[in-house]
Design a protein that fits this description.
- This protein is of the alpha/beta class.
- The chain is built from eleven helices and 15 strands.
- Helix 3 runs parallel beside helix 4.
- It is globular and about 65 Å long.
- The chain starts with a helix and ends in an 11-residue tail after the last strand.
């Protein structure tokens, strides 16, 4: 009986962590790109208790509970998608505000290396509490919000044309009351000749000290984007759908494939140019000449919803890969998906691998081969490189593992 107890005791000890356990997880041998900290080299990343513990060459593996070999891959901060639509629900005719066209974040984020999404205007001050209870509070993904200047949110149609429901003070009040989650104001889809929606959004942004994102255009005689960039928006405000060419909005590249001269001046002034790919807002005819003439995006985002994810957009990594094949490099697409958006939404605790930061990490592989990328007009561009997410950590926990690199090998 005594021998049996001793055997059981040793069996239990064999599956417990080693005594003096110091590090939970070590990502070994990957190429770390951390734009905030100017790291672009092969490094190890040690993670403990959900936080980044150390980033350095050749961290010893002794005393580490789990070592993951990520050699040949990029190790980057968890990606941040600042234009997504996640206020999903079952309300009829509600579009992206508790409706069927928005998507639950956890189903589409981690597999793309995304650990933070910003819902872009799904909720307004009238229904933000529903959004929080329904989506934010039940998601492993970090979900933030750009509060719609329309009190009822992005329900489409006449609801978004109601100037009377665009209240800067009430919007700012709700934003301040939920400062842990609300990182900006959104104005979109207005089809009138007035500047009032933009002006009220900026007023709310001033009251709450947060940026404004504008999905601009819609009037039969398009309003001036030069006036928008140089007079209406503030430095730090965001122009999304940068590379779109849609009806009732002046495109940034003219009919002669020339970037309008005031656009680069606007970027120098501090206007943030965001991709916001979506289902209808990214054309090679706009993006390629714009990038060739110097307008690279400040931030890369998806405009994720049921329409875009099943068309040319697909996901964050596909958009980043598309840009890789038309003029940006790996370092630029990583920066525009990590530290740059973190700064834009004024969340400096995100988008980097500084020791002490929450361990949101994406491990990416850059595949070489023959790939096709489709814009929102239906044109395919052939490319030779594509980013794929191998592993995603959210607060130090593995939440996506494409090929099981964090798992022990099965033995018979």
């Amino acid at each position: 009986m005594k021998n049996l107890c001793t055997l059981l005791l040793f069996s239990c000890l064999a599956i417990l962590p080693l005594s003096g356990q110091q590090i939970d997880l070590l990502l070994k041998g990957g190429h770390v790109i951390d734009p905030k900290n100017n790291i672009d080299a092969v490094m190890d990343v040690a993670i403990d208790e959900g936080k980044v513990l150390q980033v350095a060459p050749n961290i010893p593996a002794e005393g580490v509970f789990q070592v993951v070999d990520v050699s040949g891959m990029y190790v980057v901060p968890g990606l941040i998608d600042i234009h997504s639509h996640n206020f999903f629900g079952t309300e009829e005719n509600a579009y992206l505000s508790n409706g069927f066209s928005a998507v639950p974040p956890d189903e589409f984020t981690f597999r793309s290396g995304v650990t933070t999404v910003v819902d872009a205007g799904g909720a307004g001050w009238r229904n933000f509490k529903t959004f929080k209870a329904q989506t934010i509070d039940h998601s492993k993904t970090r979900v933030l919000s750009l509060l719609n200047i329309v009190g009822s949110g992005m329900k489409g149609g006449a609801v978004e044309q109601n100037l009377a429901d665009m209240d800067a003070k009430l919007t700012a009040m709700e934003a301040r009351s939920n400062a842990a989650y609300v990182v900006g104001i959104k104005v979109a889809h207005y089809g009138g000749p007035e500047w009032a929606p933009v002006e009220k959004a900026v007023e709310a942004g001033n009251l709450a000290n947060i940026p404004v994102m504008v999905d601009f255009g819609g009037y039969d005689e398009p309003l001036s984007i030069e006036t928008l960039f140089m007079e209406k928006l503030r430095p730090g405000d965001i122009f999304t759908h940068t590379y779109a060419h849609v009806a009732k909005r002046i495109p940034i590249v003219d009919e002669h494939r020339k970037l309008r001269p005031f656009v680069l001046k606007a970027q120098e002034r501090g206007i943030i140019f965001d991709v916001g790919h979506g289902g209808g807002s990214f054309l090679f005819d706009q993006a390629i000449p714009a990038i060739e003439q110097g307008l690279k995006p400040n931030t890369i985002s998806t405009d994720l919803h049921t329409g875009s994810m099943n068309a040319g957009m697909k996901d964050q990594l596909n958009v980043m890969s598309k840009l890789l094949n038309i003029g940006l490099n790996v370092q630029e697409v990583i920066a525009a998906s990590t530290w740059a958006p973190a700064q834009v939404i004024k969340r400096p605790e995100l988008g980097h691998l500084t020791p002490g930061a929450e361990a949101d990490v994406a491990v990416l592989k850059l595949e070489k081969g023959k790939f096709g990328f489709v814009d929102t007009k239906g044109w395919r561009l052939n490319g030779d490189q594509k980013l794929v997410c191998e592993l995603t950590l959210r607060a130090g926990r593995v939440v996506w593992d494409l090929n099981g690199i964090s798992r022990p090998v099965w033995e018979r």
